[in-house]
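Q: I have 388 residues here and want to know how they pack in 3D. Can you give me a structure?
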Amino acid sequence: MDNLDYFNRIMTRKSNLSRREFLKFSSLALGGLALSSMDLNRAMARFGVNQDDEPERVAFPANVQLGRMCVGEPGTRVDILSEPYVDAPAVGSAWYDDVFEWNQEVIATQLDSIRVNQRWVETPEGYIYADYMQKVRHVPQEPLLELPITSSGERGMWVEIVTPYTGLDFTKAPSQHWVRTAVHPRIYYSQIFWAFDMRQDLDSGLPQYCLKQLYGAYDDSYWVDASVCRQIKPEEVEPIHPDAEDKSIVVDLNYQTLACYEGEEEVYFAKVTTGGYDYAEEKWLTPVGKHTIWRKMISTHMSAGPAVGNYDISGIAWTTLFDNQGAAIHSTYWHNYYGTARSHGCVNAQPEDAKWVWRWTEPAVSYYPGELTIQGLNQSTKVDVVVA
């Protein structure tokens, strides 16, 4: 089937859908996420299958606190323990990308002298070390009937993924390493992408958005269920305290914290994860000293070769670059180690913290194109990385 025939089929299907039918199709999407057969067996036992959806789809419970196993790679397993301490008896197994109901976070009942964080997550099946669990939700969205028009006159919008994870339907053979090497290419809760097209999926009839990355990536694009993409509206990127003077950030490598100041007043504080100490080079991986923010992006792609960690990561939200070697404050979805030094040099923050810092720092960045490279001296907020 050629592209023209495919386009005609889509348009015919769209033209035959009334608004009522469109919303009916939309409601069927709420909760359906494509899984591998191994994921499905575990998910069926944990949450059950939505019988209104396709057989290989599972419904995550909506609008409740969940946790996703995010540390390691597909096939990685950790023990679920009977009590919240490292030597407690194992009562089950948690695998990479498994999703659990997150009852509460508790402190270890016996001190683990090797670990900094003593936090554990209580699930219905037992306790899992909190550093391994990304805090997530499944928040179904009503798909738009059409994409909004940007300031440039084109249609598109920034979207945040609001489900633990979802599969992708590629428009062409992908170029990016993170896709080509993945067992199950997925995107995850709190990632941000640019949506530039929409359609009804010919197989399921469900609304989909076509997503891509605007910065730092090859020109790959992929269709994703619209119901798991939350529209980020322009007011969400408006600056915080735009009239405040003498803004500065202090990142403390010893305590793994970030503090925002307006003059002498601390106005925001968060736990973060920075780069650790490189004993071979006798220096911190996060560059110590005074820096100036030089670029900000709502979302970007980051990658590096073996010399600095060999990583390739998509959809990194709320990125604030402050060092010319690439160090940035940004959102993180691949760990929950906040309070421990483990990054390749960036300042990893929880999504809500990275977003606040991005909006608060100077200068402000417009919704579209959602990126600004700062020119000239004394035009942006200072970042001081210290070892207390």
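Q: Anything worth noting?
A: The domain at 237-386 is CATH 2.40.440.10 (L,D-transpeptidase catalytic domain-like). The radius of gyration is 22 Å.
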